[in-house]
Write a structure and sequence with these properties.
Cofactor: FAD
Organism: Congregibacter brevis
Largest sheet: 7 strands, mixed
Structural class: alpha+beta
Shape: globular
Order of helices and strands: HHHHEEHHHHEEEEEEEEEHHHHHHHHHHH
Distance between the termini: 44 Å
Radius of gyration: 24 Å
Keywords: FAD, Flavoprotein, Oxidoreductase
Family: Belongs to the acyl-CoA dehydrogenase family.
Strand content: 5-15%
Pfam family, one: Acyl-CoA_dh_N
């Protein structure tokens, strides 16, 4: 397994030189103290924790896995100790509200720390990772009593949180859920049902686990309109905040999985468990989107994490592995062969990994910034940021995880046969990456959300909000020296809008047209959005080179990677465009029975 080294220079470049974090947070109420110096210091400490504590547990955790018993789930050796260090160092409270013990740092800083920890050891991050969504849900929708009872311990990290949505018969169609919530005389509800695929549903790392659960109350409307939201603790909580008796929720089993084996994925039985209604009845799914959107951005970070780790391992190997000679003559004449990094195809894969990781980093940090503007900006700025988040979140979740999986697969390919062998760790990265395209809504579901709800559902307004921002960037950087990036970006922007209108027109006559176009449309959108962030990074690098400031080699590498992305990766949009405009007939004309031939 590659030893993870935090890419601090690139992180600082994105935060300080591309996204202008200093000016943003100076103007957001409560974030004035989030200066570059303070954030860099926090990030450097996060890097040390990721590199020295979490990374050494990544491969061993995969090999050991979790162990289920009737008493609970035992995590791999070292995981609980690492979590104790995580809590003792105050990481869980970083971006939480100060009223409940949080440090009130920007959400973007929390995303950076999650990237560091997740790249070092994604399975481990799954345990505290969902606590962030649990905290955000209670902060946004919980009653004052619920906030007081649960948030201090969750924020401190003494307790962890989960999200309990799906059931074996319904998958992503949550309107089919059967879990029941029966009202009790004391104002609580008896929650009965079985939830599956519950990440960190049971473990030995915290004192209590707080489950956020969707269930159906008696006489609730059919479908998603009849879903309510409940908080259900593993141990009941006494009025003074101490832990009481064990609640009626237990882990029936843990899944045997392809990857993230050190993360306990649980089947959870609720047997009349005591739960408490969050917010209004039958509004559970609306409130749950607070949790799900937080989790979707967190899952997008997984795509970035696996792309980065695969790239680091691939680059080290490609520099050291000797095989064949360069086509243009020996580059290592004193050795028996040249390092494989001299070969064009190896460089193609390395640059693909690099462009995916670094482009995704800029995109996801920007998305996190938007969340901070929604929380702390004025009404106009918050509305604009919320609209941008609405259109970017499904792209980020689906596209970045698909691209991250591609980068992980390239890692295996660069190693050749050794990539298929467990001891090198590259196959684990690919196995761990595979789930990211599935949970928190598959690529297909995110694609339907994008094209159906966000693009067509808004009459194109959400898309135009983003493309107008692209246009402003192009106009502000119309100098000839930037034209290879901004000129191309302008062309893609116009094509994206025109294509969206064409798909929308077809979908008005036949709804299947939207579904048939959806995944290709999302992937097209993802490549263009990543192109926008690569153009920003290229312009920032060119300006630094012209000024003669800083590490010129770093900026020249950034510029070369941007050029590779625009010339080698961004043209993939052409095939997606042809496919999505081909229409629904080539998918829908075959009768079901003929699929058997």
């Amino acid at each position: 397994m590659p030893s993870y080294k935090a890419p601090l220079r690139d992180i600082q470049f994105v935060i300080n030189e591309v996204l202008d974090t200093e000016n943003l947070y100076a103007g957001l109420k409560g974030y004035e103290e989030a200066t570059p110096d303070l954030m860099n210091a926090i990030i450097e400490e996060g890097a040390k924790f990721a590199e020295n504590v979490l990374s050494p547990l990544n491969q061993s955790g995969d090999e050991e896995g979790c162990v289920w018993s009737e008493e609970g789930v035992k995590t791999p050796e070292g995981f609980a100790d690492a979590y104790k260090q995580y809590v003792d160092n105050g990481w869980p409270s970083l971006s939480a509200e100060p009223e409940f013990g949080g440090q009130d740092m920007p959400n973007m800083l929390g995303i950076v720390i999650n990237e560091l920890a997740g790249t070092a050891n994604w399975s481990w991050l799954m345990y505290p990772g969902l606590s962030h969504g649990c905290i955000k849900t209670l902060e946004a929708h919980g009653s004052p009593e619920q906030k007081e009872q649960y948030l201090p311990k969750l924020v401190a990290g003494n307790w962890t949180g989960t999200m309990c949505l799906t059931e074996s018969h319904c998958g992503s169609d949550l309107g089919l859920l059967r879990t029941k919530a029966e009202p009790q005389a004391d104002g609580s509800y008896a929650i009965t049902g079985t939830k599956i695929f519950i990440s960190a549903g049971e473990h030995d790392m915290s004192d209590n686990i707080v489950h956020i659960v969707i269930a159906r109350m008696p006489d609730a409307p059919e479908g998603t309109k009849g879903i309510s939201l409940f908080v259900v603790p593993k141990f009941n909580v006494n009025e003074d905040g101490s832990l009481g008796d064990r609640n009626g929720v237990h882990c029936a089993s843990i899944e045997k999985k392809m990857g993230i084996k050190a993360s306990a994925t649980c089947v959870m039985n609720f047997d009349g468990a005591k739960g408490y209604l969050i917010g209004e009845p039958n509004r559970g799914l609306n409130m749950m989107f607070t949790f799900m959107n937080t989790a979707r951005i967190g899952t997008a970070i997984q795509g970035l994490a696996h792309a980065e780790l695969a790239y680091q391992g691939s680059l080290e190997y490609a520099r050291e592995r000797l095989a064949m000679r360069s086509l243009t003559g020996p580059k290592n004449p004193d050795g028996p062969a040249d390092p494989i990094i001299v070969h064009p195809d190896v460089r193609r894969m390395l640059l693909t990994q690099k462009s995916i990781a670094e482009g995704s980093r800029a995109m996801l940090y920007y998305l996190a910034q938007l969340g901070d503007i929604v929380d702390r900006g004025d009404e106009e700025a918050a509305k604009k940021a919320d609209d941008l988040m609405a259109v970017l979140t499904p792209i980020a979740k689906a596209f970045v995880t698909e691209a991250g999986l591609e980068a992980a697969n390239h890692g295996i390919q660069i190693y050749g046969g050794h990539g298929f062998i467990r001891e090198w760790g590259m196959e684990q990265i690919a196995r761990d990456a595979r789930i990211a395209t599935l949970y928190e809504g598959t690529t297909g579901i995110q694609a339907l959300d994008l094209i159906g709800r966000k693009i067509l559902g808004s009459g194109g307004k959400l898309l135009m909000g983003f493309t107008e921002m692209m246009g402003e960037f192009v106009e502000a950087n119309s100098d000839e020296s930037y034209a290879e990036f901004t000129g191309a970006l302008s062309t893609y922007k116009d094509e994206w809008l025109t294509m969206s209108l064409e798909v929308g027109g077809k979908a008005m006559e036949n709804p299947d047209e939207a579904g048939a176009a959806s995944v290709d449309y999302l992937m097209y959108s993802g490549y263009v959005v990543l192109g926008y962030f690569w153009a920003q990074m290229a312009v920032a690098a060119q300006k630094k080179i012209a000024e003669g400031e800083g590490d010129t080699a770093f900026y020249e590498a950034k510029l070369m990677t941007a050029r590779f992305y625009f010339e080698r990766i961004l043209p993939r949009t052409a095939s997606h465009k042809l496919a999505l405009l081909s229409g629904a007939d080539n998918l829908m004309e075959m009768p079901e029975a003929m699929f058997a031939f």
